[in-house]
Design goal:
The structure is a homodimer of 76-residue chains. The first copy, chain A, is an alpha+beta fold and 76 residues long. Helix content of chain A is 22%, strand content 24%. Chain A has a single domain, classed as OB fold (Dihydrolipoamide Acetyltransferase, E2P) (Beta Barrel). Chains A, B: Keywords: Cytokine, Secreted.
């Protein structure tokens, strides 16, 4: 029974971080109890399992890289 | 001139982290040189400035919180 989550299933095979164009993290909410991670790869949206270690690593490195890119001049 | 970025302008006034439902981070890409951060607040999408310190803090805490929620049983 899909409680209107975005992700019905998650991809098990790791994705090369360079292929990821964006990452969306959705926190659990009334109509969907799951934390959901959706990435865009070559224009397609792919759901990843937030509990998988490779997903944590990919999301972490993507997040750090994008936020660091902006660090050279931090606007306070 | 909008090079087809998603964000024309970014919100300067800080948002309470609890109001954020999801966060999307888009890396710079051919048609948009900017790293973009889009959050959903009460069903509305709001662009944030990735260089602003308060944005970094909010994104960081959201990211950590959502990923940690899934840490109690990391699937390797």
């Amino acid at each position: 029974m899909n409680l209107r989550c975005n992700c019905i299933k998650t991809r098990s095979k790791p994705i090369h971080p360079k292929l990821i164009q964006d990452i969306k993290i959705l926190k659990s909410r009334p109509h969907c109890p799951n934390v959901e991670i959706i990435v865009s790869v070559k224009g397609n949206e792919v759901c990843l399992n937030p509990k998988a270690l490779w997903v944590k690593m990919i999301v972490n490195s993507f997040f750090k890289k994008q936020m660091n890119f902006s660090e050279e001049k931090a606007d306070v």
